[in-house]
Amino acid sequence: MTLDPIDKKLLFLLQSDSKKTTKELSLKLNLSVTAVYERIKKLEREGIIDKYVVLVNRSKIEKGFVVFCHLKLIQHTKEFLTKFESEVIQLKEVLECHHVSGDYDYILKIVVKDMEAYREFLVTKLTTLQHIGSTHSTFMISEVKNTTVVDI
């Protein structure tokens, strides 16, 4: 599907605030409510709009301690990778898990209450997963930029 300038602007508006009504969007795009509705449905059908979510202020729910954990597996067999990935998906503290190239195999973004909670997570959950060779944790000092808006 080729996105025209109106689709791109519509996606920007929805990424910035997905609670905008089709009427509000129609005024910003200079289109009818029906036209905006149909465009949104088309973007959803095509899989360009994947899902709608609520972004939670982590510090308000005592999950403001952010850790980036670099992780190395003991082997790189398909079996080890698959097993690790299926286990890490189950850890609610892990918001993101990326299989990467370089010195480490995975980078995890983990959120917990504080250092004590991270230590507990590390000792009782993460390091109990099979096939982990080593970990290296980096702690967020401050968040300079965090956006979910993808430039189209």
From TrEMBL:
<dbReference type="InterPro" id="IPR000485">
    <property type="entry name" value="AsnC-type_HTH_dom"/>
</dbReference>
<dbReference type="Pfam" id="PF01037">
    <property type="entry name" value="AsnC_trans_reg"/>
</dbReference>
<dbReference type="InterPro" id="IPR036388">
    <property type="entry name" value="WH-like_DNA-bd_sf"/>
</dbReference>
<dbReference type="Pfam" id="PF13412">
    <property type="entry name" value="HTH_24"/>
</dbReference>
<dbReference type="InterPro" id="IPR011991">
    <property type="entry name" value="ArsR-like_HTH"/>
</dbReference>
<feature type="domain" description="HTH asnC-type">
    <location>
        <begin position="3"/>
        <end position="66"/>
    </location>
</feature>
<dbReference type="InterPro" id="IPR019885">
    <property type="entry name" value="Tscrpt_reg_HTH_AsnC-type_CS"/>
</dbReference>
<dbReference type="InterPro" id="IPR019887">
    <property type="entry name" value="Tscrpt_reg_AsnC/Lrp_C"/>
</dbReference>
<dbReference type="InterPro" id="IPR011008">
    <property type="entry name" value="Dimeric_a/b-barrel"/>
</dbReference>
<protein>
    <submittedName>
        <fullName>Lrp/AsnC family transcriptional regulator</fullName>
    </submittedName>
</protein>
<dbReference type="InterPro" id="IPR036390">
    <property type="entry name" value="WH_DNA-bd_sf"/>
</dbReference>
<keyword id="KW-0238">DNA-binding</keyword>
<dbReference type="InterPro" id="IPR019888">
    <property type="entry name" value="Tscrpt_reg_AsnC-like"/>
</dbReference>
<keyword id="KW-0805">Transcription regulation</keyword>
<keyword id="KW-0804">Transcription</keyword>
